[in-house]
Each structure stands twice: as C-alpha cells, then as structure tokens.
C-alpha cells in the first residue's frame, strides 16, 4: 500500500474532503481533483498505456485528477449498471473517492490492476495490499446518507456532497 505524504497542502485538502467538513459542491470536487492529481505522481504506470476508470459517481472527480496528472485514457464504470470489460491498455487504475469494504471493486479486481482512493477504511486495506494507492486510511466506517452531519453509523454521503445534493 502507498499512502500519500500528508504535506500541509494535502492536509488542507483532506480537511475539505472529510465527512464532518460541511463542504459540498464545487469546492469539494476541486479538492478531489487536486488530490487525484497529487497522487498520480506516485502511480507506477506509463501514461500513454494507462486507463483510469472512474467508479460512478463518487470517483469521477478524483479520477479526473489522476487523468489530468497523467494524461492517460479515461473511462467511467457504473458497477450497478455496467458489465466490466478490462481496457486494452497495459495499466489500469480503478479510482474511487471512498472505499468502505471494497465490495464494488473486488469483482473487477485483477492482479495487474491498481486501486486509487481518496480515503479507504482500514478494514478494506488488506484486500488490496500492494495494488492500493490512497490519500489516507480511516478508521471511520458509516453508511452514506442524506444528512449533513455524521451521527452514529450514518454520515453525509460523499457522492451527494460532491454533486451538491445535500
């Protein structure tokens, strides 16, 4: 596993992305894009032979940052609707903003696939080991809901925050 160094810039961006930040919409999306761009510098790939796959919908902005950083190919994947077909590039990066259990990624995971996340729950880390590149690891795990503050086992859904729906 690779975790991005938490420089002052990264710490500021993480504060924006955290569930309890109260930040939604374009400011949150821009933070995801910038964190993806910063993480892209550490991905061991050849950009011209790489595809970043954005997990719909929450992974779009984070994946865009990786795309902007690498200048690679870009695809969208909705695990609820699409059948996964591995891109023909040598390198594939599956990007999602939040990985709680990893259950949506496990079915499409191949030995040569890299996983990129803005945040991953510590319990999911062992499933991805050397394939994982993340901004941060979190102990928190909750069901995303249409609420503004984290309460018990529920918290503000990142995707809804990204698209300014909360």
Describe this structure in words.
- The chain has a six-stranded parallel β-sheet with strand order 1-6-5-4-2-3, with helices on one face. The chain has a two-stranded parallel ribbon with strand order 7-8.
- The model has no long low-confidence stretch (mean pLDDT 91).
- Helix 1 (8-17) crosses helix 2 and helix 2 packs across helix 3 (60-70).
- The radius of gyration is 15 Å and the shape is globular.
- The longest helix is centred in the N-terminal third of the chain and has 15 residues, at 26-40.
- The chain has helices at residues 8-17, 26-40, 60-70, 125-128, 158-162; strands spanning 2-3, 50-55, 73-77, 91-99, 113-121, 132-138, 143-145, 154-156.
- Helix 3 links the parallel strand 2 (50-55) and strand 3 (73-77).
- It has 166 residues and is α/β, with parallel strands linked by helices.
Q: What is the topology?
A:
Elements: E1 2-3, H1 8-17, H2 26-40, E2 50-55, H3 60-70, E3 73-77, E4 91-99, E5 113-121, H4 125-128, E6 132-138, E7 143-145, E8 154-156, H5 158-162
Parallel strand pairs: 1-6, 2-3, 2-4, 4-5, 5-6, 7-8
Helix pairs in contact: 1-2, 2-3
List keywords for this structure.
single chain, 166 residues, alpha/beta, 6-stranded parallel sheet, two-stranded parallel ribbon, 5 helices, 8 strands, 27% helix, globular
Order of helices and strands: EHHEHEEEHEEEH
Please report which band the strand proportion falls in: under 5%, 5-15%, 15-25%, 25-35%, 35-45% or over 45%.
25-35%
For the residues shown, what is the average pLDDT? 91
Give a short account of the largest sheet: 6 strands, parallel
Q: End-to-end distance, in Å?
A: 32 Å
Physical arrangement of strands within the biggest beta sheet: 1-6-5-4-2-3
Task: Give the strand tally.
Answer: 8
> Number of helical runs?
5
**Radius of gyration, rounded?**
15 Å
- Classify the secondary structure makeup into a structural class: alpha/beta
In percent, how helical is the residue content?
25-40%
Q: Could you say which overall geometry the principal axes of the C-alpha atoms support?
A: globular
Stretches where pLDDT is under 50 for at least 5 consecutive residues are none
């Amino acid at each position: 596993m690779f975790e991005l160094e938490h420089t002052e810039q990264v710490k500021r961006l993480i504060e924006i992305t955290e569930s309890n930040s109260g930040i939604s919409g374009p400011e949150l999306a821009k933070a995801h894009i910038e964190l993806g761009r910063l993480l892209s510098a550490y991905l061991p790939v050849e950009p011209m032979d790489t595809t970043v796959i954005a997990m719909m919908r929450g992974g779009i902005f984070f994946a865009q940052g990786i795309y902007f950083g690498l200048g690679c190919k870009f695809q969208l994947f909705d695990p609820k609707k699409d059948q996964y077909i591995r891109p023909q590039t040598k390198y594939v990066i599956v990007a999602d903003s939040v990985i709680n259990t990893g259950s949506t990624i496990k079915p499409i995971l191949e030995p040569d696939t890299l996983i990129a996340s803005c945040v991953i729950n510590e319990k999911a880390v062992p499933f991805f080991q050397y394939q994982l590149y993340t901004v941060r690891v979190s102990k928190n795990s909750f069901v995303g809901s249409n609420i503004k503050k984290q309460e018990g086992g529920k918290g503000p859904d990142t995707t809804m925050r990204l698209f300014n729906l909360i």
